[in-house]
Amino acid sequence: AEAIEVLSMTQNDPLCQNTNMSGDSKDVLTDFEYLRTKAYDLAHDRFGNRIYIRGLIEFTNICKNDCYYCGIRKSNSHVDRYRLTKDQILACADEGYVLGFRTFVLQGGEDGGFSDGAIADIVRCIKERHPDCAVTLSFGEHSYETYKLWRMAGADRYLLRHETANRKHYERLHPEKMSYDNRVRCLYNLKSLGYQVGSGFMVGSPYQTSVNLAEDLHFLAKLQPQMIGIGPYVPHKETPFAKMEQGTVRQTLVMISMLRLMFPKALIPSTTSLGTIAADGRERGFMHGANVVMPNLSPVSVRKKYELYDNKICTGEESAQCRGCLDRRAEAFGFQIVVDRGDYIS
Ligand code: SAM
Ligand code: FES
Q1: Where in the chain does DSSP place strands (E)?
Q2: Which residue of 174, 192, 215, 297 shows the fewest CB atoms closer than 10 Å?
Q3: Most informative mutation of 110, 114, 205, 307 for ligand 2 (most atoms within 8 A of CB)
């Protein structure tokens, strides 16, 4: 916790004087840059300059939950709610396939309008049309039986951030109806069903301390997920946390590097929220050990409606082809976006 705290402060190091602001070392590296170099080298040894992509299909913004931080929480009456049809979802996947995506992530609010069978049917259809692709679900908390049904239908992976490993902190971020224990139970159920599991947390979420972040690392060390998604907390104006401070780029990069060192094989995305608070945020994430990016494949007409936080990027008309844009940006930093499922390799 102390290391996280010190590294997250800017100009934390008295030796900083020997280092220019871009982080290029003259005589000696700052602790922050040293951490970055170690994480980058480790990722590079394992993955080279390869960055894996996942096509994100935000298929519903309807949610029964009311997380205090989330823009699509059910109490936000300003949201224009939508639900994609099965045909729309399949069309997104077809388009993504042509663009070179070999993983599709179906993400949504916890929308009871999709039956378990309907989700299974969509997964099955994507796998039939694109047998060489992985399907990842990110659709919240469900029973063991439901997760099993979706796994049998062909779902390969599941993303469910634990959000915070500290029970008291969890209770400050979520209303009473939501249960920390159930979140954790879901994660272990998913693992036992053979999903490649992704978990993670927001950096700088309201009331979070450095000790909480250390607890997150400890939790993940026990869970051993294959994927770890973290990004800065970014306020949304229509939530109870609208006035809370956002997470910082620096602390997010510190946590990405620490995760890379702890989990050399993990798939670690450089997230949209990091790209939202800094124009070059996602590229800097790669420089700190991240190796995945999740461009938006949702129909342009709904992208603005899936606003989890203010000013979310890649929601305008210009973003229909996020793939091409990211290719160029990654290349400028020496990375190459690859056509590959990007499975976890143990
Ligand atoms: N409903 C599914 C779930 O709960 O896992 C998937 C959708 S949920 C909106 C996806 C993730 O968005 C959450 O796990 C949370 O960490 C992140 N998120 C929500 N609000 C955010 C905010 N204000 N800033 C940054 N990330 C946020
Ligand atoms: Fe939908 Fe949190 S508001 S899961």
Answers
A1: 50-53, 55-60, 103-108, 134-138, 157-159, 196-203, 227-232, 292-293, 336-338
A2: 192
A3: 110
* pLDDT tens digits for range 62-78: 999 999 999 999 999 99
The ipTM, to two decimals, is: 0.98
Calculated CA dihedral for residues 232, 236, 242, 244, nearest 10 degrees: 10
The residues near 154 (Cβ < 8 Å, ≥ 6 apart) are: 123, 124, 126, 127, 135
* Matching residue, tokens 């929220």: 273
Which domains are seen in the chain, by residue range?
2-338 (3.20.20.70)
Which residue's CA is minimally distant from atom 11 of ligand 1? 161
pLDDT exceeds 80 at position 26: no
| Ligand 2 site, residue 110, Cβ cutoff 6 A | yes
Contact 163, 130 (CB under 8 A): no
User: Does 179 sit in the ligand 2 pocket, CB within 6 Å?
Assistant: no
CA nearest ligand 1 atom 26, residue = 233
Q: Which tokens go with 323?
A: 């793939």
| Segment 221-274, tens digit of pLDDT | 999 999 999 999 999 999 999 999 999 999 999 999 999 999 999 999 999 999
pLDDT category of residue 319 using cuts at 50, 70 and 90: low
pLDDT band per the 50, 70, 90 thresholds, residue 323: confident
**What burial letters (b/e) apply to 300-338, b meaning 16+ CB within 10 Å?**
eebbebbbbbeebbbbeeeebebbeebbebbeeeebebe
Mean pLDDT taken over the chain = 94
- Given the CA of residue 109, which atom of ligand 2 is nearest to it? 1
